[in-house]
Every structure is written in structure tokens, then in C-alpha cells.
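fwd from M.: "can u put these together and see what the complex looks like"

so here's what she sent:
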Amino acid sequence: MSYLPLLGILIVVAGFALRLNPMLVVTVAGLVTGMLAGMSLPEVIAAFGKAFNDNRIIAIVWIVLPVIGMLERHGLQQRAAALIRSMRGATTGRLLLLYLAYRQITAAIGLHSTAGHAQTVRPLVAPMAVAAALAHGPLAQEETDKVKAMAAATDNVGLFFGEDVFFAIGSIVLIQQVLSTYGHDLTPLQLALWAIPSAIAAFVIHGGRLLLFDRRSSSSVAVAASASPAPVDRVEP
Amino acid sequence: MIGLPLLYVLAGALFGAVAVRSAFDRTNRKRLGNAAFWGLMALSLLAGDAIGDFGNGLIVLGLAGLAGFGLVGRGAPVTTSEPEREVLSLRLGNRLFLPALIIPVTAMLGTLAWNYTPLGEAGWIEPKRETYVFLALGVVLALGAIFVWLRPPLLAPVEEGRRLLDAIGWAAVLPQMLAALGAVFAAAGVGDIVGSMARAAIPEGSVFLTVVVFALGMALFTMVMGNAFAAFPVMAAAIGVPLLIEDYGGDAAVIGAVGMLAGFCGTLLTPMAANFNLVPAALLELKDQYGVIRAQAPTALLLLGANIAILWLAAFR
């Protein structure tokens, strides 16, 4: 067996590590891999084009952007932040813990496409999480970014470790099909059932980190506040 | 029947309108690059089925070239300022959440009604695509509600969409590029090579170590491909079925389900899963494009350990 096609993987890893533009890295890796596997240049370009066309469904989610943008224009992010400020006891960790549970449960009943980074995280969850963190004092840009990143991470964890509990999802169908080609016939329900222990583990592990996130950020804010009363790069609350 | 073709037209119309507005945005030095980039996306969505595989390949090369050589910039659509938004937020109050909730609620209620009431038997919607269709319906309803209530300028949806798309930039297209790369990798036989390498790494006779190699193999190969779907058939063929299920008598349901979830831990760790990891970093305008991956890494690693434990304990009861 020739190991040459693995060069494409090497290009990808090196490209991402060197932070070259991913669009170029991916294109070069695809062209090189295809040609090392014996395809001609026009064949590789056509294979790339076909796969790109077959995956256009990924682009559909962007149709929500005009709505999100219009609501931002009228102060949605500010409203989301104000709502959180009005709640006593709301913290970043507790808020995201609630969102984690919501995302896992809705994904587990097949509603995985109803929330997401464009639909819910940018307009609602991230500004709420930042507002909850600001309740404990000002944040440097870097800390604001950490809170936002945690909001996005929570969406991913909730989605990934909720959706497989739903039996009619693509990954369950794929597992069933692959195993049945080897003569191991399973029902989707059996597979979905065995996704539950991992879903619980995900909730405990990520949920625990979210609650710790509160403790750590409140202590780091306290330290920052006592060390430097006027941080330079401050975000207006 | 309503299905993907109509949704592609909707998305294509958005990208097309953004391209046209970009071309006339004199605040953006690279306005022609933006117009070409979003225009190519519109072409792909509107005419992708008509221009052939090679034609689509040329679109891909065009997108990669424009983004890769820094020809795409960021426009400055007219929008409200931060203080104006604070004032609007106070004036409009919590009612502002209602239009925002129209999209998820329509998608949710529509999907539920389609699947659990006789409505679904009407057959108006392409099977398995109902959530996307209801998502689009939610977008149309939300836009309608906003226009009736707030009376924004007619072009505001396009301009606000352009503001967000320009903020995301080429990251909006990268997930589709990576899916295409995965297909090229598969055609080149990368999966078989990885499977044989994983198999060579297994020590003879230890069930636990075989479980560990299976789970780590799923996570690592998922990181390479950006997608656990591509990794699962490979690792199942190399290790899961012949060794864990057939030689060691493990429970096939556990090995299948938890094996896939071990792969999902890899998805949390890789820039190759761009739509989950790089797109939100762009969407939230983070300084560090790997910020989301950093936030996820501890969860992913602990959870990979948990999945190995679940595999080991539950499959070999």
C-alpha cells in the first residue's frame, strides 16, 4: 500500500499549524492528494467541484443572517444583556449550564437545527453570557473573548452529545448501516440508547467546567481590579 | 414539493444581493473582491446543478484564490451605532426577543407537527428536510414581522446580512470546502491507509488497549477529516468489527454508538471542523481564530476518557 496520499494530511496539519489561509491550504491539499492517488488535474478539480456542490446544504443556514442583523440593528444584543443584568444571581456559568441542558434536550428530541451559532449564540447567548460576567466588574478584551468562546463551545458540546440520543439522525443511521454490512443488525433505538451515558458524562464534565469558570473568572476579575484599577483595553458594559 | 432547490434559490438570492451591494460599497478598498467572492457563492447556489462538476470545481478554485490571496475585505454597510442601539433596546423592551424567537420556534413546532401529526402525510416537503424548510419559513415570517413592526429601510435586510457575512468572511465557505476535501481524501484511499496503521498499533490480546486504540483512532482520524462520519466506517472496519465485536465478543450497539461519540470528541478539537470551531470564532469576532477550540479542549479530552471508560465497562459486561 502506498502511503503517498497521506501527504495531503500533512499539508493540512502544517497549513493549520502555520495559520496559513485555510481556504488555500484545503485546496492545495485536495489537489495534491488527488494527483498522488493517480487522478489528472481536471479530474481532481471536477471531484472537488462535485463534492462542493453536493454539500451546499451547509450554506443554507446563512439565510438567518438578515434577520439576526436587523434585530441587532434595533438593539437585540443590548436587550439580551439588559435582561441578564436585571436577573439577580445570573452568572456566566449558570446561564451557560442552562443553555447546555436546553441544547442537549432539544437535540435529543430531533430539534438539533433549531439553535446554533448564527441563530442563537451570536444574537442571544453570547451577549447574555458577557453581560453576566460584566456584573462582576469590567472585562479586558481577552476575557470577553473567553466568555464568548465558552458560549460557542457550550453550543457544540450540547449539540454533539445530545443529537445521537435521537434515533432518526444521520450518525445513527450511518452506524447502523456500517455494522449491518458486517452482519450485525441493530435497531436505531438500541444505538440511541447507548448514546445516553455519554450525554450524561458530557453534561457533568462540561457543566462542571462552566461552574468552575464562574469561580475562576470572579477571582481573576478581583485580582485584576486590585492590581490595575484602570485596565487599558476595557469593553464598555 | 418544497425542498432543497427552493432553499438554494433563497440562499443564492441573499448572496447575490450581497455581492451587488458589495460592488458599490466605496468604503471597502477590496469591494470588487467581495463582489466576486459572494457572487461565486450565489452562482454555486443558483446554478450549481447546471454547470457541471468541472464548472463547480472552477468556482471552488475562484473562491479559494480570492480568499487565499487576501482579495476579500470588509464593507461598511450603514447600520445603527452602539448608543442608538442602547436607546432602541430601552424603547422596544423585551418585545425585541419575539421576532428573534420566531425562527427557532417555527423550526421546532413545524418539525414536531410534521413528524407527529397527520400534517406530514400531505407530502409537501422533501423528506428529511422539513427542519430546513421550516427554518426558512421562520426567516420569512420574522422578516415580515420586523417590517410591519419597525418599518426599516427596504434594503436593510441585505445590508445587515452583508455586515454579518463580511464579518465572517471566507469562514462562511470553509465548511463546504472541507467537506469537499473529505470526499477527495476518501477517493484517494486515505481511509484504508489510516485503518491499516491503526491496526498495526494494537498490542495482541489486550481488550482494554484495543478499546483505547479504537477510541483514540476515532478521535484522531476525525480530527484529520473534520468529521466523525468519515472516520467511523474506517475504524469500524479496521478494529471495531473484527476485533472488538467478533474476536472479543463486545456489544455491537455500545461499540457503534460510543465509538461514534469518541469521534465527536475529536470534532471539538480540530480546525478541520470549521463550521463548529472556526465559523463561530469569526461570527463572534474573536481575536484568536482557535479560541473556541481552546475553550472546548478540556471538555473534549475528559469526555474522550469517559467514552473509553463507557466502552470498556458497557461493551464487555
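replying to her w this: The mean pLDDT of chain B is 91.
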